[in-house]
Design goal:
Pfam families: CYP38_PsbQ-like, Pro_isomerase. It is an enzyme of class 5 (isomerase). One of its GO terms (molecular function) is peptidyl-prolyl cis-trans isomerase activity. InterPro entries: Cyclophilin-like_dom_sf, Cyclophilin-type_PPIase_dom, CYP38_PsbQ-like, E_coli_cyclophilin_A-like, PsbQ-like_dom_sf. This is peptidylprolyl isomerase. It is a single chain. The protein is an alpha+beta fold. Among the domains are: 103 residues, Four Helix Bundle (Hemerythrin (Met), subunit A), CATH 1.20.120.290; 206 residues, Beta Barrel (Cyclophilin), CATH 2.40.100. Strands 9-10-16-15-17-8-7-18 form an 8-stranded antiparallel β-sheet, sandwiched between helices. Strands 3-4-5 form a 3-stranded antiparallel β-sheet. Strands 1-2 form a two-stranded antiparallel ribbon. Helix 6 packs antiparallel against helix 7. The N terminus is likely disordered.
C-alpha cells in the first residue's frame, strides 16, 4: 500500500487485526499534525517551531536540525509537564514562530507501559506466550520495589516475592519445559535448574537478613529467566518485506560492548557500556547497526551531542550525514521500523501518528534510561543511516505514561550494563571501540563480509 504526500510515496507493510487509515498530506506533516520533534509547547502551552543550525565541538555547521536535533524539542515537551524552562531558556538562539492550530491533545500521544528496567523491557518484548515463566518473572522483578522499603523491613516483602516465584516455578515447571524450542530444550532445561537452585540461595540470603546480597542475586536470577525465555523462541517469527530482505538483518538478538574514553572525568576514564540489540522487533535497524559495528564504523568517533536529554553519535566526518556504502558510493539508508505491541511484524515507512495509531503501544518503548534509537531527518521517515542516540530520561517525565518519541523513531536496543554512567558522557568523548560479543551468528546478509 502507498500514500502520496507532496510527490513522495510512503509505503508500509502491515499485518494487523485492526484497521489503519493512511493520511495523505500536501506537505507531509500539516501544522495541526506536526511531530513533536519540530513542534512543541512552551510554558504557556503555545505551539512553536524551533529552527537551529547544529555545530559540534569542531565547529562544523550546516547539518540539518531534525531529530538529528530532537533533544531540544523533547526537553520542551518535558517542560509542558514539569514546569521546566521555557522555549527561550532551551533555545536561546532559536527563531521561534507561533503556529496554528495547536498540536493534538498530549493525552492521545503514543503510550508505553510503565516499565523502566531495560532487562524487563527486553524480556517482555520476546515473541513468546508462556504464562508459566511470566509468573516466575513478575515476582522476581517486584523485588526491586520491595527494596525501596527502608532498612531490614524490606526483606519481609522480598521474602514474599521469593516464595511466590519459587511456588510458580514448582507448579509451572513442566509447562515451561514444554514451551522451550526443541533445538534449545536441553540448554533451557539446564538454565531452569540453575534458576531453581538460585531461588533457594536467594531464600537463604533473605533468611540471613543480608539485604545487600538481594539485588545481585535478583539480577542473576532474572538473567536466567531471560535466557529461558529466549530459548522459547523457535526461529525467526515472520518474513521481512521483500524490498528489505537483502539488507543486513539481525534475526534474533545480539550484544555489543561499547568502550568510551571519557576525557574530563579522572574518576571515570574508560566506560564499557553493554548494549542488547533486539532483532526480533527491529531486524532491519539492528542489522544495519551490527553491520556498521563489524565495519568498525563507530571506532574512534566522537560523541557529538550530550545535552542531558540524549547522547548522540554516528555523523561521519565530511559532508555525508550517514554511512556511504562503498559498493554504491551512496548513503545507505534504512526505513522507519516500528513494532506495535500485539502485532506479529513491524510497520515500515510511516510513523504511528501518520497511520492514525495514536494510542498504540510500541513493543520497544522509550521508557528506559539508555533506550537506543536511530536519528533521522525530520520530514523523511526512511532517512536513517548511521546516526544513533540514547535517551537520558525515563518515562515518568512524559504525561500520562505517553512517550512522545514512541512510534516516531526506530528503537532497536537498550543499554543494560553501566547505563547510569551514560549521563557522564560529554561531547568530544571518544568511542574507542564497539564489539559484538554475542549474537553475531544472527546477522543475515552481512555487507561487511562482501566489502572484505
Amino acid at each position: 500500500m502507498a500514500a502520496a504526500a507532496a510527490g513522495v510515496s510512503v509505503r508500509w507493510h502491515y499485518s494487523s487485526s485492526f484497521p489503519a487509515t493512511p493520511r495523505t498530506h500536501h506537505n507531509r506533516f500539516l501544522p495541526n499534525h506536526s511531530t513533536t520533534s519540530l513542534s512543541f509547547y512552551s510554558k504557556r502551552l503555545a505551539p512553536v517551531v524551533c529552527s537551529l543550525k547544529s555545530s559540534d565541538s569542531t565547529g562544523r555547521e550546516g547539518k540539518s536540525f531534525s531529530f538529528k536535533e530532537c533533544a531540544v524539542s523533547f526537553a520542551l515537551a518535558v517542560g509542558l509537564i514539569t514546569g521546566a524552562p521555557s522555549m527561550a531558556d532551551w533555545c536561546p538562539d532559536a527563531n521561534a514562530v507561533a503556529v496554528n492550530p495547536a498540536l493534538p491533545d498530549v493525552a492521545v500521544l503514543i503510550s508505553g507501559p510503565p516499565i523502566k528496567d531495560p532487562g524487563a523491557l527486553l524480556r517482555y518484548a520476546l515473541p513468546i506466550d508462556n504464562k508459566a515463566i511470566r509468573e516466575v518473572q513478575k515476582p522476581l522483578e517486584d523485588i526491586t520495589d520491595s527494596l525501596k522499603i527502608a532498612g531490614l523491613k524490606a526483606l519481609d516483602s522480598v521474602e514474599r516475592n521469593v516464595r511466590q516465584a519459587s511456588r510458580a516455578l514448582k507448579q509451572g515447571k513442566s509447562l515451561i519445559i514444554a514451551g522451550l524450542a526443541e533445538p534449545k530444550r536441553a540448554q533451557g532445561g539446564e538454565v531452569l535448574d540453575k534458576l531453581e537452585t538460585g531461588l533457594d540461595e536467594l531464600q537463604q540470603i533473605v533468611e540471613s537478613r543480608n539485604r545487600d546480597g538481594v539485588a545481585p542475586k535478583q539480577k542473576e536470577l532474572l538473567d536466567y529467566v531471560g535466557s529461558v525465555e529466549e530459548d522459547m523462541v523457535n526461529g525467526f517469527p515472520y518474513e521481512v518485506p521483500e524490498e528489505y530482505k537483502n539488507m543486513p538483518l539481525l534475526k534474533g538478538r545480539a550484544t555489543v560492548d561499547m568502550k568510551v574514553k571519557v576525557k574530563d572525568n579522572p574518576n571515570l576514564e574508560d566506560c564499557v557500556f553493554r548494549i542488547v540489540l533486539d532483532g526480533y522487533n527491529a531486524p532491519v535497524t539492528a542489522g544495519n547497526f551490527v553491520d556498521l559495528v563489524q565495519r568498525h564504523f563507530y571506532d574512534g568517533m566522537q560523541i557529538q551531542r550530550a545535552d542531558g536529554f540524549v547522547v548522540q553519535t554516528g555523523d561521519p566526518e565530511g559532508p555525508a550525514e550517514g554511512f556511504i556504502d562503498p559498493s554504491t558510493e551512496k548513503t545507505r539508508t534504512i526505513p522507519l521500523e516500528i513494532m506495535v505491541d500485539g502485532e506479529k511484524a513491524p510497520v515500515y515507512g510511516a510513523t504511528l501518528e501518520e497511520l492514525g495509531l495514536y494510542k498504540a503501544q510500541t513493543k520497544l518503548p522509550f521508557n528506559a534510561f539508555g533506550t537506543m534509537a536511530m536519528a533521522r531527518d525530520e520530514f523523511e521517515d526512511n532517512s536513517a543511516s548511521s546516526q544513533i542516540f540514547w535517551l537520558l530520561k525515563e518515562s515518568e517525565l512524559t504525561p500520562s505514561n505517553a512517550n512522545i518519541l514512541d512510534g516516531r523513531y526506530s528503537v532497536f536496543g537498550y543499554i543494560t550494563q553501566n547505563e547510569d554512567l551514560l549521563a557522564d558522557v560529554k561531547v568530544g568523548d571518544v568511542i574507542e571501540s564497539m564489539q559484538v560479543v554475542a549474537g553475531l551468528e544472527n546477522l543475515a546478509n552481512p555487507s561487511y563480509k562482501i566489502a572484505g
